[in-house]
Amino acid sequence: MAVELNHTIVLAGDQDAEAAFVADVLGLPAPTRYGPFTVVAVANGVSLDFMTSGETTAQHYAFLISEREFDEVAARLAAGGVVTWADPWHRRPGHNTDHGGRGMYFDSPSGHVLEVLTAPYA
Question: Where is the VOC domain (predicted)?
């Protein structure tokens, strides 16, 4: 049997705002509701299921995207005034070319560290 990730629950201060931010920045379809969750369909049947929680611990979510999509995400982040970083520690502003592609990090409204990259790590 092949094992595939189907969904993961993402805790957020405001699940609707968090889901809308992620869907908008990544250029994904608008979030939908499923039970108590606000759902963002990512790709290949995988979804991020957002749930409001009084306690959230910052997590890291990385998304592999194309070069064209990278430019689109960067433009949406810049238009929204979202600061981007070349590293997950937020020490170098902008983006990186460290792994044979481009990558950048940015924070979600709930403080999760999101990453977009154009080439998988070796």
Answer: 4-119
Average pLDDT over residues 65-77: 98
In Å, what is the CA distance from 77 to each residue of 6, 24, 52, 94, 108? 27, 10, 23, 11, 11
pTM passes above 0.85: yes
**Structural contact between residues 25 and 76, judged by C-beta atoms closer than 8 angstroms:** yes
Q: Are 61 and 107 in contact (CB under 8 A)?
A: no
CA distance 49 to 119: 25
What is the rounded average pLDDT for all residues in the chain? 96
Question: Side chain identity at 104, as an amino acid letter?
Answer: M
